[in-house]
Write a structure and sequence with these properties.
Strand 1, helix 1 and strand 2 form a beta-alpha-beta unit. Helix 1 crosses helix 5 and helix 1 packs across helix 6. Helices cover about 50% and strands about 15% of the residues. It has about 160 residues and is of the alpha/beta class. The protein is globular and about 35 Å long. The chain has one domain: Collagenase (Catalytic Domain). The chain has six helices and four strands; from the N terminus they run E-H-E-H-E-H-E-H-H-H. It starts with a strand and ends in an 8-residue tail after the last helix.
Length: about 160
């Protein structure tokens, strides 16, 4: 698994180490029985950047803890692709699954409000975001139940308490 961890905030003191993000991502893929030979970007940034992205892409002019942008491959003519790479198109692999954008300020405030450690909150939100990249959603009650149950199982295996209590 390749995680491009981008940190754009000045104070990195309270941020989890890159190894933690890898551990959380690997646990998510293991629970789902999915191949973890993928690439994703996790960007830790300020509330202003997340608010702007939330406004531009979701129509909500406020920061949120995480935004997930799944990668959708553009349809490409297989012949053009084969010519461009001078190889067998079937051998090409595009393992990039998407981007997670996390607002560090929102994360810190929520951890305090919810009485959790910042580390546990980052674990939860990272697992939550990866599930979104893999197609899980919580816009309907039945979807939310499935997604939350997965999150709780993954986090429990990581030694992290139920985030919804």
């Amino acid at each position: 698994m390749l995680i491009d961890l981008q940190i754009t905030v000045d104070n990195e003191e309270h941020l989890p180490a890159s190894q933690a993000f890898h551990r959380w991502a690997k646990a998510t893929f293991a629970e789902l029985g999915k191949d973890d030979k993928v690439e994703l970007t996790i960007r830790l940034t300020d509330n202003n950047e997340v608010q702007q992205l939330n406004r531009d892409y979701r129509g909500q002019d406020k920061p949120t803890n995480i935004l997930s942008f799944p990668f959708a491959a553009m349809p490409i003519d297989p012949l053009e692709l084969q010519m461009a790479y001078a190889g067998d198109v079937a051998e090409l692999d595009v393992p990039f699954i998407g981007d997670l954008i996390i607002a560090t300020g929102v994360m810190e405030a929520e951890a305090v409000e919810q009485g959790k450690t910042l580390y546990d909150h980052y674990a939860h939100i990272t697992v939550h975001g990866i599930l979104h990249l893999l197609g899980y959603d919580h816009s309907q009650d039945d979807e939310a139940e499935v997604m939350e149950a997965l999150e709780k199982r993954i986090l429990a295996k990581l030694g992290i308490a139920n985030p919804y209590q």
